Amino acid sequence: MSLARLLAPVGIVLVAVLAAITLLFGIGVSPAAAAVAFWQGTFGTPINLGVTLTQAVPLFLVALGWIVTTKAGRIHVGFPGQIITGGTLATTVGLMCGDVPAIVAVPLTAVAGIAGGALWAAITAWLWAVRGVLEIVSSLLLNLVAVQIANWLIRGPLRGSLDGQPQSATFPASTLWPSVPGIPALSFDVLLMPLLAALLVFMFARTPFGFDVRASGGNETAARWSGIRPRRTGVTAILISGGFAGLAGAALLFAGSAPWMSDGFEAGVGFNGIAVALLARNSPIGAIFAAVIFSALNVGSTALQAKLDVPSSLAAVLQGAIIVLVLLSSVLLHNRAKRAQKTPVDAPTRPALASVGQV
């Protein structure tokens, strides 16, 4: 990876910080006071640190799903729907685990989330592989279907609120994912970030499937002539990405602050996770830091609003600015790489032409 690609995410973050400072000046808030409040609200106390890291996990998981599919040459945006279906299936399983010990119930909810997301992604994969439907189109439409199904379930079969609120029954205590001792807001699922990042790096670099993914995404025709089946590889990548998103849905519910499934629990994590992957330049390791940055923006904006009356929409503005800057830098780096590949061919000199004529 070139130095420009390594420094691009750092430059993007710095530009976003400058934009935040400008906006704060515009609304009459001291950037220094905002920086102190932001730090205290995100990392300054054990509870706030735990909230920031816990909320980073679902973003990171979605980013991994995007990384796997794009490296395989496939692009889909079905993560919101897969988060919802994964969380819905995890909720269904969790509500039936009232008498199940935590050592069994917690893995069951995680597996149910993975299965729910993968099954929903399987629809996109089948439509693309068998019917030739563009995965970006089908996955986007399936998001809307997933929202409607979840809304019906929490207002019908899964509703547990006595006052008619759109939410499920309270999860049994044994299904809630355990927290780190001394930091109640920090769930142990934070360990998934370094473990899964290392696993994905190893998979891409050292396994036959990782080679198939990179080959299919790099040059599908060449991969096919090498004996690789890009279509099968693409389907598998989409299913894996759905599993990551479904696990993110389970994490949002069973490692979150509210022990029930409510209307709109996905809260934009699906699309924000794509932005995390873009900021990380599709690096699993970089996705850890990018996810923490996006999570800190969400958590910190609440602290800024509470302490300094800064509009909570500031976080959304900065996240949008980061996405635009990421896309712009990608275009610039791509154009630079194309110009570098176009090396001029020197015209042959006269002696060379003479020697050619003598042959």
Report on this model:
This protein starts with a helix and ends with a helix. With 359 residues, it is mainly α. Strands 1-2 form a two-stranded antiparallel sheet. The radius of gyration is 24 Å and the shape is globular. The protein is built from 14 helices and 2 strands. The protein has one domain (3-338): ABC transporter involved in vitamin B12 uptake, BtuC, CATH 1.10.3470. It has helices spanning 3-26, 31-42, 46-71, 79-95, 102-129, 135-154, 192-206, 208-218, 220-225, 230-254, 269-279, 284-308, 313-341, 350-358; strands at residues 179-180, 183-187. The longest helix has 29 residues, at 313-341. Helix 7 crosses helix 8 (208-218), helix 8 crosses helix 10 and helix 11 packs across helix 12 (284-308).
Please give the structural blueprint.
Blueprint: H1 3-26, H2 31-42, H3 46-71, H4 79-95, H5 102-129, H6 135-154, E1 179-180, E2 183-187, H7 192-206, H8 208-218, H9 220-225, H10 230-254, H11 269-279, H12 284-308, H13 313-341, H14 350-358
Antiparallel strand pairs: 1-2
The topology string of helices and strands comes to HHHHHHEEHHHHHHHH
Could you report the average pLDDT, rounded to the nearest whole number?
A: 88
Estimate percent helicity.
over 70%
Structural class determined from secondary elements: mainly alpha
Number of structural domains: 1
CATH fold field value: ABC transporter involved in vitamin B12 uptake, BtuC
Task: Report how far apart the termini are.
Answer: 44 Å
Low-confidence stretches: 345-359
Strand order of the largest sheet: 1-2
Strand content is under 5%
Gross geometry: globular
Radius of gyration: 24 Å
Largest sheet: 2 strands, antiparallel
Q: How many beta-strand runs? A: 2
CATH class label: Mainly Alpha
Q: Which CATH-level-2 architecture? A: Orthogonal Bundle
Number of helices: 14
